[in-house]
Amino acid sequence: MPKVKMPRKSTAIDMTAMCDVAFLLLTFFMLATKFKPDEPVAVVTPSSINTQLLPDSDVILLTVAADGRVFFSMDGQPKRKQLIEDLNTNFRLGLEKKEISNFVVGSSVGTDFKNLKQVLNMSPDQRKATNIEKGIPIDSANNELAIWIEYARAAQGGMNNKLKYCIQADNDVPYPVIKKILDTFKEKKIQKLNLVTNLEAKPAGSAAAIYEEQQQAQERKK
């Protein structure tokens, strides 16, 4: 007896539910996302023709205000949590869970260990309105910046070859302040540093400008 062939029908997939899920996820992330708060200090960096971009990860960043105050920041929330917990344990800072969380999701800090607990209890606006953040001490007698760098390196994995040390200094920072920071890195046997600058046009007739023109000419010939 011959087999009966069933007629083939095209499969129709209802995408309504998937669209609803996509919009629900989008709405969730829009409402739940916390943006990084503004930095407590603004700096005007010098200009250069270097086009290398500041990396998004594996970065220890020092921001130096025009008045010489030094602020510390580091990427990666799990790494920031390990850093602040290690400091809290070894230096008995008395930080509670809320203050540790504020550091993990917050911006850079620029105060001594004695006032760190009070700073981490403030909102970004309160920190800007007060004068409590006088900068991380960098004097030879009390060089807390060296401690931040040492513990940050440990939190970043110790021998992390991708780790970059960046200094974002205001154009008006006194040179002795920069020298103290450089001496601190030298003390920690860190020789390779990156200076954060604003991009400016290459001077006409300079070696960099001539090289760029040659590269553009070669691209046009291809």
TrEMBL record:
The keyword Nucleus does not apply. Its main location: membrane. Keywords: Cell membrane, Membrane, Protein transport, Transmembrane, Transmembrane helix, Transport. It is a single-pass membrane protein; Single-pass type II membrane protein. Transmembrane segments: none annotated. Coiled coil: none annotated. This is Biopolymer transporter ExbD. The lineage of its organism: Bacteria, Pseudomonadati, Bacteroidota, Chitinophagia, Chitinophagales.
